[in-house]
Amino acid sequence: MRSKTDRETFKFSEVLAALSHALDMVEGQPEGHVVRSCYIGMTIGERIGLSEDLRSALFYALLLKDAGCSANSFRTAVLFDADDFGVKRSFKTVDWSRLPNAVLYAARSVSPQGNAWAKARQFFSVSKVLPDVGRELIQIRCERGAEITRLMGFSEETAGAIRNLDEHWDGGGHPDGLKGDEIPLLARICGLAQTAEVFYSAYGPERAEKVVRARRKRWFAPDLVDVFLAEARVGNIWENLHGDITGAISRMEPEDRSLFATPERLDLAAFAFAQIIDAKSPFTFQHSEGVANVAVAISAHMGFGPEELRNQRQAGLLHDIGKLGISNSILDKGSSLTDEEFAKIKTHPQLSYEILSRVPPFESIVERAANHHEKLDGSGYPRGLTGEDLDLPSRILTVADIYDALGQDRPYRKALPKERVMEIFDEESATKLCPESVAALKELVSKGVI
Ligand SMILES: [Fe+2]
Ligand SMILES: [Fe+2]
User: Fold this and answer.
1) What residues does CATH 1.10.3210.10 cover in the chain?
2) With the CA atoms of 378, 381, 382 and 384 taken in that order, what torsion angle do they form, in degrees rounded to the nearest 10?
3) What class, spelled out in words, does domain 263-446 have in CATH?
4) 3-state secondary structure of 29
5) CATH says 10-70+136-257 is which class?
6) Least confidently predicted of 67-76, 111-120, 189-198, 340-349
7) Tell me, what's the pLDDT at 442?
8) What mean pLDDT comes out for the span 396-411?
9) Which ligand is nearest to the CA of 294?
10) Ligand 2 centroid to 397 CA: how many Å?
11) pLDDT score, position 1
């Protein structure tokens, strides 16, 4: 494994490909959905002879196509009274542009845990907004995805491909009902690649080809369908999708346009994914950025150098990335959680660890991100570590996380006033929380720095 000191030799695409596994979770898709979609889309792009600039724009559109996916998770869970992962997963295999299919899909998806009365009531409320609900959910996802792509400095071609990837050739798609050549070419490729991958992963290559063929001229541009089917017939597109294809994806980026994982790009990736993480639930609005700011302020107060401050910022921005793997039906639950649900919540730091440990340039922030709910006396989770195991950056991050969280509303309580927050830090300092970090926090609060 290359070390962090070599991080500029890492391609930025390898970072985004690794982080895309978090987006797969949000969409309820099997691991690798994004990278396999990228392989399919880039194969089409190469076969139709796209220029290097357009292939570069397509490449990043395919890797970031689901960047807006968390923005409709809360709405999805509330609307369907269901686990957002299940609803999103089944949505991808439904031909929702046909109203009877959309109605059937809604009837099957609402209130899976509820009794017949609850299902009927929820179906009634969804049916009142059909078919507009499909447009609404897609619009939220695509617009947010495009915004995040712009935030990362990618071109309008990339942002436009993401914004329009659910438009259909016959005008029946969303969000704008664009038709034929009105749909940007890169968006047409992304839409086809996405659907082909979903059916390939769920049912295998034959079904994927059948669905794409059946939606020729309805969902997909006929020329692209022909290229895709010819490639599926004579090429080895499906064989190449097995296993970890990150390396193969990396080689598909036009060489002259390759982007590397510079510290500045890693900052941008961390900031962009913080937006994705915080958008998952209305209760975590700007939480990741808040934790990053507090962690950096405490660390600076303690005399950390520039590289460590950068690490603390990135760790603060990404510490809760594992929450993307927790259903909104648990995250936003107003009433008290069952033991099983609480156990699920407690897995999110481990999920953060698993996602971030795939990204070698983030190797120095993995442990501290995974430790942000650990306490000095061993009462934290998920590993029950103690003061002996927790380094100073981890301890600071825990204090920063608690400080920001206590000041925000949660489904089960209102935001606490600052005086009460500081009392809690006094009560837990030394036993559960690092006394030096708490002292630094208190000083910064008293000076109005945070
Ligand atoms: Fe957390
Ligand atoms: Fe947090």
Assistant:
1) 10-70+136-257, 263-446
2) 0
3) mainly alpha
4) coil
5) mainly alpha
6) 111-120
7) 97
8) 96
9) 2
10) 9
11) 47
> Is 442 an active-site residue?
no
User: Residues 416, 422, 426, 430: is their CA dihedral positive or negative?
Assistant: positive
The overall pTM is greater than 0.70: yes
Count of C-beta atoms within a 10 Å radius of residue 214: 12
Å from CA of 318 to ligand 1 middle = 10
Among 323, 333, 344, 432, the active-site one is 323
The separation between CA 422 and the C-alpha centre of its own chain, rounded to angstroms, equals 33
Please give the distance, rounded to the nearest whole angstrom, from the Cα atom of residue 324 to the centre of ligand 2.
Answer: 12
Q: How far is the CA of 384 from the centre of ligand 1 (A)?
A: 14
| Statement: residue 296 has pLDDT above 90 | yes
CA of 78 from ligand 1 middle (Å) equals 22
Q: What is the predicted pLDDT for the residue at 8?
A: 59
Choose among 277, 324, 330, 315: nearest CA to 399: 315
Tell whether the model's pLDDT for residue 5 goes beyond 70: no
Ligand nearest to the CA of 323: 1
Per-residue pLDDT at 424: 97
